[in-house]
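Researcher: Next entry in the queue.
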Amino acid sequence: MNPIYFDHAATAPISNEVVEAMVPVMQDVYGNPSSVHSFGRKARKILDDARNVLATSIGAQEKDIIFTSGGTEADNLAVMGAAKGNQHLGKHIITTAIEHHAVLHPAEQLEVEGFEVTYLPVNEAGLISIDDLKAELREDTILVSVMYVNNETGSIQPIAEIGATLAEHQALFHTDAVQAYGALPLQVDALNVDLLTLSAHKINGPKGIGALYAKDGVSLHPQQHGGEQERKRRPGTENTAAAHGFAKAVELMKENQKERLQTHKRYKKLFLDTLKEEEIDFAINGGRINVPTIVNLHFPGLNVETLLTNFDLDGIAASSGSACTAGSVEPSHVLRAMFGEGDERITSSVRFSFGLANTEENVQEGARKVAKVIRRLTKTS
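Model: Structure for this entry, 381 residues:
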């Protein structure tokens, strides 16, 4: 039995081209990018080239890209760093109830430290209301953080509209674009964002490296203390090989973006059509404004933990939502925000996400295996 991977939103397999690009750097480019000798200069050039690739991909300047250890650190630096760097202007922050925990937990910590945080609600499609945002904006609001694409449902927030709303306000605007990168056009000026989070492993790059775009002039309070790397915003010796791998993944993403999106759209349709042909009772969580890589399905009368266990036994890798809470299978805070406490969908929904590990054949085979499990569990429930 060949296991079938439907969990690309948690992490995606690294592409062969990325591995091939990283190996020579790991073997031969071992200098510290901060060193002035030839070994360090060689590493610095690779790092600068990678920074330029990332910056170009989102319409930013090279100096505005901060390399981090991943999306979580980038989110933490954006939320904590912007709040503490601008608290002289106010201590009010706005975010949403469906953010990744890499934003929610820093927001909760800021509340402990005396900041006031407003959590915007969402509708059943998982979208915030611009009117709600406008109603909550205050003179002392210093930061608004809204994720571009939700990692559990794939819902797309109106980031450009939010950016336009905040254009004349002092509040900095941060968006976690980890799930949007590669799925949607990202141009920081068009979106009018001040801070934007990226991660390599969601676009078939290496784990352990991410980036934060910080617009020139944005005040960020460092969250770590040490050297003066990353223009004094994130200390620590940079991961040259991973940065090079990240850049290679971005280049491949840009080359094949339209083709990939069409492929993922076909996978998603094939998966859902096959479940319908198998006469499985399910409903899609969320509205029509979503990315082609993610679908969150409600299976009435069944329990998510039982579903995931049985899927795994039959060789299907899926999840209940954020990989950061995997293992506990806690009720989804995203679905709770969408549907309300106590709704059956909170404990009977599964996320399937498509990508490099899929083919039309294994998507259809996987859907049939999912259908087989559903039928078996329905009979025994």
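Model: The first helix runs from residue 16 to 28.
Researcher: Noted, moving on.
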